[in-house]
Write a structure and sequence with these properties.
alpha/beta; 14 helices; globular; Isopropylmalate Dehydrogenase; single chain; 12 strands; 15% strand
Length: 368
């Protein structure tokens, strides 16, 4: 049976409702899952009208009490070409201004996510795919979390978790062929058929650059290496070649530019080497990224946010998927933001390819 995937509207002032509707209108989505929308149905209907989309919704007006019955209702609605929509927040969100930050939209986004997490923990749905929220709006509403990842971790009661960005192999093909001729070969010795994309996990996340060295510990690096290895096993990556980034330029130049490599990162890599199939580092990031894109590594452990985000968003901004590791539930999302500058404007339609890929990956992880 296809998995049931809850899709949260995110900040309704942004492009979330639009990209969700565009994604579920594609035949590829109905082939891999049964979607359930979490948000106000009138918001989705307004978006559908503005962008000329036809998405028949069936609003669920009661709280989900019986997970088995709910799953039957989802499938039944799908057989009648309708999609269930759950509204866990008030009608006040309908008056929320579009294309700008607001407390009301931030509050609604939090409650949409919270409802989806509850459904997943009750096994009413098999995965969550989240549209982007706005962190400023979230804070204005009194929800003092850095983002989706930290809310999910708290609600699921996990201490060891991580944000990971995943580029599917299809987004890397052109780049691999551009880079390999310059290096004369695929240094990994692998065929394209054995490659499983490129994934980057972050040891620290939403924090200032100034705080990163103080937040790094040997144990936190070990934890992220192991989370990466578990993910690669989950997607049946046979090689599981993991590279760990240095923090400082040129890998610290043996202490000239900092000692985090010798004091924290190398000991963490050595602690994992005996039990993992393939882990190496710390490696200078400027050359590591090129080696990884050419096909030498399957996973990268980055020390901070931009170290991992910049290469992913350069190579495959629309195709990359955000996956939260360490949770007892499956959660994915596209890597783009709310795009207030172009939201709710039919002259600047949003690209839904990131949402489509997030749905596909969520379905794949659910089946695994």
């Amino acid at each position: 049976m296809k998995p049931i995937i809850a899709m949260t509207a995110g900040d309704i002032a942004g492009i979330g409702p639009e990209v969700i509707l565009r994604a579920i209108a594609q035949p590829a989505t109905s082939l891999v899952c049964y979607p359930v929308l979490i948000g106000h149905p009138q918001i989705f209907r307004q978006a559908a009208e503005i962008f000329g989309l036809t998405v028949p919704l069936q609003e669920l007006t009661t709280t989900v009490q019986d997970s088995a019955r709910f799953r039957e209702d989802v499938v039944s609605a799908a057989t009648h070409r309708r999609i269930l929509c759950i509204n866990p927040f008030t009608d006040g969100v309908l008056a929320t201004p579009r294309s700008r930050v607001s407390c009301e939209a931030g509050d609604a986004a939090f409650h949409y996510l919270d409802a989806a997490i509850t459904l997943a923990k009750r096994f009413a749905v098999d995965a969550i795919v989240t549209a982007p929220l706005n962190k400023e709006a979230l804070h204005l509403a009194g929800h003092h979390f850095p983002g989706h990842t930290e809310i999910l971790a708290e609600r699921c009661g996990v201490a060891e978790f991580a944000m990971m960005l995943h580029l599917p192999e299809s987004a890397l093909v052109t780049w691999r062929h551009l880079i390999r001729p310059l290096s004369n070969s695929n240094r990994s010795g692998e065929n394209d058929a054995s490659l499983c994309g490129l994934s980057i996990v972050h040891v620290t996340l939403h924090t200032s650059i100034d705080s990163v060295p103080q937040m790094l510990t040997k144990d936190s690096i070990i934890g992220k290496i192991r989370l990466m290895d578990s993910f690669l096993q989950r997607i049946h990556c046979e090689r599981r070649a993991i590279a760990v980034c240095s923090l400082n330029p040129h890998g610290g130049e043996n202490g000239l530019f900092g000692n985090e490599e010798s004091r924290l990162i190398r000991p963490a890599v050595e602690a994992c080497a005996a039990s993992l199939k393939s882990v190496t580092g710390p490696l200078p990031v400027d050359t590591l990224i090129r080696r990884a894109v050419s096909g030498e590594f399957d996973g990268i452990v980055a020390m901070y946010h931009d170290q991992g985000h910049i290469p992913v968003k350069l190579i495959g901004f629309d195709a990359a998927v955000n996956i939260t590791l360490g949770l007892p539930i499956v959660r994915t999302s596209p890597t783009h933001g709310t795009a207030f500058d172009r939201a709710w404007n039919p002259r600047t339609p949003a690209d839904a390819s990131g949402m489509l890929e997030a749905i596909r990956i969520a379905a794949e992880l659910s089946n695994h």
